[in-house]
Amino acid sequence: MTKKEEPPPSQIPRAVRVASLLSEGEELSGDDQGDEDEDDHDYEGVPNGGWHTSSLSLPLPRPVAAPHPMDGPPGGTTPITPVIKAGWLDKNPPQGSYIYQKRWVRLDADHLRYFDSNKDAYSKRFISVACISRVAAIGDQKFEVITNNRTFAFRAENDVERKEWMQALQQAMAEQRARARLSSAYLLGVPGSEQPDRAGSLELRGFKNKLYVAVVGDKVQLYKNREEYQLGIGITFIDMSVGNVKEVDRRSFDLTTPYRIFSFSADSELEKEQWLEAMQGAIAEALSTSEVAERIWAAAPNRFCADCGAAQPDWASINLCVVICKRCAGEHRGLGAGISKVRSLKMDRKVWTETLIQALCAAVTTTDLAETQALLGCGAGISCFSGDPEAPTPLALAEQAGQTLQMEFLRNNRTTEVPRLDSMKPLEKHYSVVLPTVSHSGFLYKTASAGKLLQDRRAREEFSRRWCVLSDGVLSYYENERAVSPNGEIRASEIVCLAVPPPDTHGFEHTFEVYTEGERLYLFGLESAEQAHEWVTCIAKAFVPPLAEDLLACDFERLGRLPYKAGLSLQRAQEGWFSLSGSELRAVFPEGPCEEPLQLRKLQELSIQGDSENQVLVLVERRRTLYIQGERRLDFMGWLGAIQKAAASLGDTLSEQQLGDSDIPVIVYRCVDYITQCGLTSEGIYRKCGQTSKTQRLLESLRQDARSVHLKEGEQHVDDVSSALKRFLRDLPDGLFTRAQRLAWLEASEIEDEEEKVSRYRELLVRLPPVNRATVKALISHLYCVQCFSDTNQMNVHNLAIVFGPTLFQTDGQDYKAGRVVEDLINHYVVVFSVDEEELRKQREEITAIVKMRVAGTASGTQHAGDFICTVYLEEKKAETEQHIKIPASMTAEELTLEILDRRNVGIREKDYWTCFEVNEREEAERPLHFAEKVLPILHGLGTDSHLVVKKHQAMEAMLLYLASRVGDTKHGMMKFREDRSLLGLGLPSGGFHDRYFILNSSCLRLYKEVRSHRPEKEWPVKSLKVYLGVKKKLRPPTCWGFTVVHETEKHEKQQWYLCCDTQMELREWFATFLFVQHDGLVWPSEPSRVSRAVPEVRLGSVSLIPLRGSENEMRRSVAAFTSDPLSLLRNV
């Protein structure tokens, strides 16, 4: 047999057997039928040999060389134990078989190990050098390694190699004994070993019998049983510099290395936690360095723990300047960072500056530093006035004197509160820890972090008790208060959201959620509401900047930072801070003053735009629009759900409903608006009942989210809607008139003097809550309009009172006084609710517009259905600039323009001519609306390829200058003309552009073939023309200064033609003249309003105009009676 030398470490292929890389869930076989190396084959092959994977390997490219996997991690801090000798040997089984098995054997200063292969990460067996009694030659090329009760036989390839192995073993034994004499290991009963941090039996997945496991220093050692542990003969050991531990369930945990996963099970949950703590300590030990510790131990007093006197303490309190052992460090940490700032001498390398090391060594030898410590301990203020204006604080005084050690000590104690004596109770001492802004500590119950929202309830069993410390901007959680290394940590700078679910959402009554930039969600729980609130407050203060500290003034359900766009700054998103409290969303933006809270239940729009990857939450409130972007999906989805829930109705009372601008519940004016537009002429409205099933479904939808419900004719019958409204009012827990005042209203109806009764009603109205008061007015105003059409709907005041009396007062219908109250309120509507002439006029205009639209719809065969919420754009048509707004019948173009500008907080400067344009994309033309033009009829005439946009009218100033300097009110000149006739309804254009002469005066526009012509070829009434700026390109206009003119005949037939001018100024002059003659000289308001339009308190007709039922003649009669003189319809006033 030829000798096989071990290749140099640099030439060893970096490959690891798959037996070292088994997945976490694989079951391991304990049988090793082919290896008779030991008495018990089950344990012979634990790490590598017997798990039926010997044929699999993961070799890396050969040129990439690396040392043996267990020699130490690349770049690691754990010292590599030098290998004395390594090579292939034949090993004889203990049964004395003549069949030798080849093994890769390695000898270092502490252990003799043998492996199946030179590529294996973990050994089949190891023998402690300290336990070897002697080495002897036994024949040709054979030698024995003899321990107290075991003998291991090996065979080399020749006598020379055998001699080298025997000499190496004997030298290692001599060096080991020499080291042992200098240590106290013999006192422990295990020669040559150090005291384990923890030892005991554990189950290893795949084996029937338990293994004996010992955590020693930075290694975890596996033994067959306790006897072999005492003999120093083990299976393998795991270097924890490459290990990590995590819990799996109540009794199980995994030890993970790059080579394989060891799945252990303990006998109890407590024992599991103790094993986890010990192994985490081994990891900390493996990753530590002794350089700082050696320097600090150079001072004799620092070689022992300041608290218990244990030797070689490897922890320190940097603000108290004392060295402590690991056990005492856990006690110090339990005091909180405000009392003792604990740092490791071996791990926290960045903390240990040269000055801090000197300060810790000097604290026990330098009298001036000891004196400073004594002063601080006696209650001296760390920032007290020194008496020197140039160096007002002790720190400044030390800096002035060049006392670097004093400065270091004072800096470390700036946030420390020391024991103080209470003058009122001289015998009682207490610590005052600065918890809110700097630090906090205590036990929390924590679940495993999640990458998605927690939809299901987390049971109490899913929480694990952890010792948590919030200090220096880091939230760390440990296995227990004595643990050295944290299981994990959350940096405050990475927290993007803090949420507080309602009580009893999970297994613990009080919980809170922490969201991080890494898209992770951490759930913590406590039983005590006070402790949970304290933790939430401290964490909030740790990650919220001073800019947004006002958000912490009140309790919140959700707090965090989100990218947003608002105002006109829509080009790029900025980061703002938001807090959700009840139905209020508070916001703090980096630029500008603190924003007023958004009342989520008063939003005009709440929608989601964009695709699933780039979602944008749009919140539209009067005067402003806010776009919140979903940059991080996890916390954005949490915000989205919370905001939607806060914006929905919270209960059954009126004040808990979604509200409109006038504090009227959305559910009420949704129904009122629909019936106003669809049911004013419906016979028996409110007296007839709708279908029970449809009414119930509609009411449930309205209660859930009335803002998103759109009532449309053809989908909902007016009787179903009226029944839903009545049921909602009847089911109110406190009633519309409240239980406290209900009797007073009924008693007022019996007052005989009409003036006294009306006065009493007015007094009672003022006493109602604001939402109830606004709802009563809106409902009575609606019923007043209904009774105005009693000739058609057969619902006069008395009939309405019979229906609504028992509904509003929630009586059984036997009390006639309830109906009398409703009848009085309708009859005295103007006086009781202080309705002025202007408000009544607007109400009359809205009803008139409804009927006119009904007449027009009946004549043309068209119908308009649904709530008309118009989309208007600011400056250009983009998703970021769109605004959704309700259009009442009375709204003018000026009011719409100001409404849009108010929402976006756009100020109007001098010579800013903001105007609303009707844009026709198909015709490539646009028309600036006249400021007094009603918007609603325009909206009903818009096609799918048209929209409204509010922008500056760039030519208005030049047009006004022209109109101010011109003489007369006519305009004439040559323009290029082209007519566009619809042939056979196909819309085919005919002809090209031709020169024509035009004359425009106050009554008509005339077209002449030439200047000398006496008779016009065409003539149109000027007020029936709509003039659009622009001509579509496919017509090939001769110039770029043209406009499109649309004329609608009395038969509702549309004619369209195109005009082109030679210059831009000529175009502006013609267009200015058109506006001048069409609007009687008033082109622009002389004093345009600079305030937003006042929204009427009564919301009638504020949605799309829907045709009324009934014949055209019936509606004409009803409208004539209503519009002639509405005041004449008031009775007994």
UniProtKB/TrEMBL annotation:
In its UniProt record, a GO molecular function of this protein is: GTPase activator activity
- For the Rho-GAP domain, which residue ranges apply? 648-833
Arf-GAP domain mapped to chain residues:
290-360
Renumbered to this chain, the Pro residues biased-composition regions fall at: 60-72
- Spans annotated as Disordered: 20-78
Q: Where is the composition biased (Acidic residues)?
A: 24-42
Tell me which residues make up the PH domain.
82-174, 195-284, 437-544, 968-1079
Q: Which SMART domains match?
A: ArfGap, PH, RhoGAP
Q: Which UniProt keywords apply?
A: Cytoplasm, GTPase activation, Metal-binding, Phosphoprotein, Repeat, Zinc, Zinc-finger
Q: Which GO terms describe its biological process?
A: regulation of cell shape; signal transduction
Where the record annotates domain Ras-associating, the positions are 866-955
Listed under GO cellular component are: plasma membrane; trans-Golgi network
Q: Does the keyword Metal-binding apply?
A: yes
Q: Does the keyword DNA damage apply?
A: no
- Where does it localize? Cytoplasm
InterPro entries in alphabetical order: Arf-Rho-GAP_ANK-PH_domain (IPR052227), ARFGAP/RecO (IPR037278), ArfGAP_dom (IPR001164), ArfGAP_dom_sf (IPR038508), PH-like_dom_sf (IPR011993), PH_domain (IPR001849), RA_dom (IPR000159), Rho_GTPase_activation_prot (IPR008936)
Task: Report what the protein is called.
Answer: ArfGAP with RhoGAP domain, ankyrin repeat and PH domain 1
Q: Which organism is it from?
A: Callithrix jacchus
